[in-house]
Design goal:
This protein has 522 residues and is α/β, with parallel strands linked by helices. The protein is 37% helix and 15% strand.
Length: 522
């Protein structure tokens, strides 16, 4: 104990001496040095480990502390991203992926700056915190410290299984990626002051599955006190991505049972045997051997032979009840919120030959998904011809996955008296995809290639609002149009386009119909 106190005293003294240095910063794990960013006033620290590599016996366990180091760790290159099949932008990927990056002013003598922690999207199966569009230089120039993180993806980040639950003191499995994100926020709490940031003023923000992550972190009691504001850009909240760990529902069987069957088939495939019978699956699940064998597999086999899309699970620990119920009951964290969507979210996801290409198959699809409400949904969207089906698919995805859940979230926050602001991004950016999913990210980070004056002005507006919100908990800033707080009664939102304006009642008829369906299913 005395030695531990001595080491802590040494590091705290060393920290006091070097905190203003542009070369070395002390973390609780050891000293790190940064490197140049695209702007001389901003320094970036790339690839800082925030947890131990989740490999071997640590695969499918909560993140563990980093092994400390004593020599200065040179953080001049990004750490590996989580293993993923669709590695679009190339780059190093590995099961050893729990790294983060920090952009901060080289001048760290002044008052502590607000901190903005970015959580990347990618459907929980792809992406990383160091994609070029996420470079934090431009935001850091405006007086914040920016942190971006990697976390476990796919089956490595979300696999539920009875044997994994049995070894857990919380009888829980799955959601390892959410635990990674919580560990990263704890790292920020413990270390960010030495990078010039204020650990008592942390904003989490993310897009798509990153927005979903912000939604989940604002719900889980395990993240309480780790952040103080939250921004959700196009949070992906389709009800089918949520499942109970132990119990099945209309979206499918329990997450554990689905994991058990998938793992049994994987092991049988590796053994070169035929698919097991159900009784044999249960026997295999009950053995301790299954986890030993799973953890001994090369990670590439997990990636290649096990499906990667797994649900976020209600497990009684990370989520004591379904996240939607947490918000409905007012048990979410009381932190100011910005939430918004893009007009054409669905263009990225709708197949060109939607609903099988016929009006009859469209109606059948609606009945299969919405049961007794199926005909009502079909009549609401009412495609006029087979050629109209793609447009309907785009709008329905936009409504179901994004707009209605965003309004539901905003109303839940307003109901509890929490400050919330809503936006809608409508500027066509990517040709036929329009104001597509993720099209706003370059504006938020100020990373547009050769922007027009109108694009540069819109990007400035995003950054002004976001940085002001991070600093004060209110996005309103003198340099930009007034943004009214969202209330259920007035239902107003800010429209981001070449001209910023105020509107109200975003997709109200569609949202009301979807609210009715969700209430009926409950």
């Amino acid at each position: 104990m005395a030695m531990k106190l001595l080491v802590m005293f040494f590091f705290s003294c060393f920290c006091c001496i070097t905190v203003a240095s542009a070369d070395v910063v002390i973390t609780i794990s050891g000293p790190v040095s940064g490197t140049e960013s695209p702007d001389a006033s901003v320094e970036v620290f790339k690839g800082i480990p925030y947890a131990a590599p989740p490999v071997g016996d640590l695969r499918w366990r909560p993140p563990q502390p980093v092994e400390p180091w004593s020599a200065v760790r040179k953080c001049d290159r990004f750490g590996p991203k989580s293993l993923q099949n669709n590695n679009r932008d190339g780059g190093n990927q590995s099961e050893d992926c729990l790294y983060l990056n920090v952009w901060t002013s080289r001048d760290r003598d002044q008052q502590k700056r607000p901190v903005m922690v970015w959580i990347h999207g990618g459907g929980f199966t792809q992406g990383s915190g160091h994609q070029p569009v996420y470079d934090g230089t431009q935001l850091a120039k405006r007086g914040v410290v920016v942190v971006t993180i990697n976390y476990r993806l796919g089956a490595l980040g979300f696999l539920p299984h009875p044997a994994l639950s049995a070894e857990s003191p919380h009888d829980s499995s799955g959601n390892y990626a959410i635990l990674d994100q919580i560990a990263a926020l704890k790292w920020v709490r413990d270390n960010i002051a030495n990078f010039g940031g204020d650990p008592d003023n942390v904003t989490i923000f993310g897009e798509s599955a990153g927005g979903t992550s912000v939604y989940l972190l604002t719900a889980t009691p395990l993240a309480k006190g780790l952040f103080h504001r939250a921004i959700l850009q196009s949070p992906w909240l389709d009800p089918v991505i949520f499942r109970d760990l132990k119990n099945g529902n209309e979206n499918g069987p329990s997450a554990e049972s689905e994991g058990a069957v998938a793992v049994a088939k994987l092991i049988e495939t590796i053994d070169g045997k035929q698919e097991q019978e159900t009784s044999k699956v249960s026997a295999l699940d009950a053995t301790e051997d299954v986890l030993r064998r799973l953890r001994a597999l090369p990670a590439e086999e997990i990636l290649g032979k096990l499906k990667q899309r797994w649900p976020v699970v209600t497990d009684g620990w990370i989520f004591p009840k379904a996240p939607r119920a947490i918000y409905a009951d007012g048990d979410q964290h009381d932190v100011p919120i910005i939430v918004g969507t893009n007009r054409d979210e669905g263009t990225m996801f709708a197949p060109r030959r939607a609903f099988g290409g016929s009006l009859e198959s469209f109606r059948q699809a609606m009945v299969e998904r919405y049961g007794e409400f199926g005909n009502k949904v079909a009549e609401f969207y009412a495609p006029q011809s087979a050629e109209d089906l793609w447009r309907v698919a785009v709008q329905q995805i936009t409504d179901v996955w994004f707009v209605q859940p965003a309004r539901e979230l905003a109303r839940a926050m307003d109901r509890q008296g929490t400050k919330v602001w809503m936006y809608h991004f409508t500027k066509p950016v990517w040709g036929w995809m329009g104001a597509a999913h993720a099209a706003e990210i370059g504006y938020v980070f100020g990373n547009l290639e050769d922007p027009s004056p109108a694009d540069a002005a819109l990007s400035d507006a995003f950054m002004d609002y976001w940085v002001q919100f991070a600093a004060t908990g209110d996005p309103n800033v003198d340099s930009q149009p007034a943004w009214p707080r969202y209330t259920t009664q007035e239902d107003r939102h800010l429209v981001f386009d070449n001209v910023i304006s105020i509107d109200s009642g975003l997709r109200n008829d569609a949202c009301n119909l979807l609210d009715e369906i969700l209430a009926g299913r409950q």
